[in-house]
User: What shape does this take?
Amino acid sequence: MKELTIISGKGGTGKTTITGSFGVLARSKVLVDCDVDASDLYLILEPEVQSKEGFFGSQKALVDEEKCIKCGLCEDNCRFDAIVDLKINEMRCEGCGTCAYVCPEGAITLKPEKTGELFVSETRCGTMVHARLGIGAENSGRLVAHVRQKALEVAKAKDEELVIIDGAPGVGCSVIASISGVDMVLIVTEPTFSGLSDMERAVDLCTHFGIETLVCINKYDLNKENVKEIERFCYENGIEVVGRIPYDPDVTKAMVNAKTLVEYSQNTAAQSLIEIWKRIVERMSLSKSRPAKDVECLCIDEVHHADDYF
Amino acid sequence: MIVAIASGKGGTGKTTLATSMALAVGELQFLDCDVEEPNAYHFLKPVLKGTNSVRAFIPVLNPNLCSQCRKCVQFCQYNALALVKGRVIIFPELCHSCGGCKILCPTGAIREGEREIGTIQIGTAMEGIEFIDGALNIGNPSSVPIIRKMKGLIDEDRRVIIDSSPGTSCAMVESVSEVDYCILVTEPTPFGLNDLRIAVETLKMLQVPFGVVINRDGIGDERVEEYCKEEKIEVLLKIPDSREIAEAYSKGIPFVEVLPEWRGKLQALYEHIEGAVE
Amino acid sequence: MKIAITSSGKDLNSTVDPRFGRCSYFIIVDADSMEFKSVDNPAVTASGGAGIQAAQMIADEGVEAVITGNVGPNAIRTLSIAGIEVYSGARGTIEDTIKLFKEGELTKADSATVNSHAGISERDNTRRRW
Assistant: This one.
């Protein structure tokens, strides 16, 4: 079983659009939405929830007002400024337990807090594991680890070959949790200054964790100069650019119609996604999704696996 | 007045709006709090005065004092410590800098050390903008301490624009809490709407007043506007989908420079918000 | 000799879980008597430091060798300080793996097979600008 994570550094580069299409193209897979902050994959895959469970990811300090002698030691020792006027600010509390330790009266305990919900669902292109983080909840990294673990269990039980993970933007804890130990990361970038520098940070992150990385360039026709910059950077860093996707209004139209791009469109953007997928299949040596020799196109309104055309 | 510009979904044009508005209004403090991916720099092209290191606690062990009692290992919620063969091993990159191990060590074997988790740059840009941005060092999990330190540099008597972290996680909450007003930038697509809803709920919980700017108006459907109408959320401005804006963005050019007629609109928007806040 | 094998199930017919820090179970077995027990991995859903937490647990169990698929640098560091030998690249059932181990057919991992977290504090974090 292998794991592929799609990340972008910069938000809005088309990560979820690409993940959704891969979900249609891959034959033996479980889809995972690890962008728990802005989980949008479900909007195009319309999952039917089969099971759900609460997620108790973080602990929060809880003060027992009756035992509290208002000595202020907790406030003095909290390095997260999470205790102000002897009140716990739950948004800032990291659940480290220092306040509970220093409290001379034992008035502070750590209580597990339900920070999200995790779902296992069926969609028209297979099983999907996704989650919803509580509003303003912290510790999305732990929820991501949990979601991935669940997906691996499902994939194992169903003997699926690949777990496809839609990662979060940025380079913080939830991204780290969504790429650590995976077999391959695909970074989706765009030829803008921001896209360039965010890609660079994402590449640094993957290198830092020693993960094999591929790059694809979305909306490549927006700025050809920057495309060259991206390709030069990738070349110098030994990273394969697996494809360029042109700007295509069909991308938004597909989203509005709750379809993945390859289901909705036969245009060049959809075609280039198929090409990218074929290259990933080769690079990851996925035996159950053989590389295509000749993919004509996929039909609208009907789910096909790219394999059917091989 | 402190105005934060945020968005549930990334890539909706938060930085585009924040930087152009800063240039249109002028004479203000600009904070790029999107420390995971700081990009306002490209657009405002500040002259930097200096870079400050943001440092956080890590434990430093004196093995001669350590009694191998294991208390620190059991206490650490982040698996940053291990005890094997009578030796405590410290993994700084997993440390969240809570300082608990240092406090509880019964033999005083742990002392205060520190490491850099990110940097803050300060400079000046055109139109009298004081520019401040932060960057999280790669491999570190948490942006919050950097954002908190940046917000400590705010001069409350001035006009301030904050380019917030995207999403609704702890970094966004830290960026927008205690601001006077928050502009949520979205795009008129199903993804944009879904992420807008979550951002709206977050701001309601934080009790921050807010309005919506719809960017790339015309690309998707009407559902964002219908939602704003139902929820009685003010749509402050619509920015049309434009190849010109997108191309300027790709080169790091603020769109007020290519479409000067927007200068007045953005000034008016800022003043409108000032009026609403008072 | 007491060894720990990362496992996807609770008995000797289960297959080796290729992950160390986030494996489902550890099978701890006496290679001579073949007496074994299975232990849940406490680190499965750690947001970070799973390898360290798992290695700590294995070290506390007093095992002399670990057999797994891939192992990261934090776990390697912890295990090597604990004086535990690490064999990587294992696959197949637990029973077959133990046999291979006894026949000396498994490769010892001297360094991490999966990079991670390496060298963070020394890393040059100067910002590049496009």
Residues 201 and 263 of chain B are 31 Å apart (CA to CA). Chain B has two domains: 2-54+119-277, 63-108. Residues 190-206 of chain B form the longest helix (17 residues).
